[in-house]
Amino acid sequence: MKETQQNNDDDNITATTTTTTATTTTTIYIKINRLQRIQNRTTHILTDTRKYDHITPILPKLYWLPVRQRIHYKVMLITYKSIHDMVPEYLCERVSIRKSSRKLRYVIQ
After folding, report:
1. Structural domain for 78, as ranges
2. Whether residue 2 is found in the same domain as residue 28
3. Which ranges in the chain belong to alpha helices (H)?
4. pLDDT (tens digit, 0 to 9) for every residue of the chain, 109 residues total?
5. DSSP character for 104?
6. How many domains does the chain fold into?
7. What is the DSSP letter of 103?
8. Same-domain check for residues 47 and 89
9. C-alpha distances in Å from residue 96, one per residue of 28, 61, 88
10. Residue 77 and residue 35 share a domain
């Protein structure tokens, strides 16, 4: 009987963790979308365009990336700099390089 309760407790913990992760992911998407709306509105104000004009062709003129692309770019940049010791030590410690144990299928001869 106790084992069943422990399993049920573990299942509840797992379910709670999954729900929390899903909620966190949803919250992140909401915040990114909110930032994107702010960026779009700022672009409209700076370029004096109408509210319903498409924003995609205007962003490159300001040398701006959309929010999701900018986040991806910044993560990749910090990773690159961490690998090449161009950032503070505390960031370098977070990145580790792993070599695959599998061989590539395509071999140049």
Report:
1. 65-109
2. yes
3. 2-47, 67-83, 89-92
4. 434 444 444 444 333 344 566 778 889 999 999 999 999 999 999 999 998 999 999 999 999 999 999 999 999 999 999 999 999 999 888 888 888 777 767 666 6
5. P
6. 2
7. P
8. no
9. 26, 37, 15
10. no
